[in-house]
Write a structure and sequence with these properties.
Layout: E1 11-15, E2 20-21, E3 30-31, E4 36-41, E5 47-50, H1 52-77
């Protein structure tokens, strides 16, 4: 049986090994060394980091989008 595909391979939680910039709010937010953050890897290998407060909003939006996709697929499949 084929493995189930992981569609979230570019998103992970990492602990910062040094100071990182929060890419949603660069001016006011940063990620301190030793603190967990959301890391999103783009196709070219670039990583964007998000602090916990911003990551929460991003994950809420992602959950809503995924739920919408699931509902849409269920509608088509019956």
């Amino acid at each position: 049986m084929a493995q189930v595909r992981d569609i979230l391979i570019h998103v992970t939680v990492e602990v910062a090994e040094r100071q990182r910039t929060c890419h949603r709010n660069r001016k006011d937010h940063s990620i301190t060394k030793g603190i967990a953050c959301l890391a999103v890897y783009e196709g070219d290998g670039q990583r964007k980091n998000y602090c916990g407060r911003c990551a929460e909003d991003i994950l809420i939006k992602a959950k809503a989008k995924l739920a919408g996709i699931e509902d849409q697929l269920k509608e088509y499949l019956g």
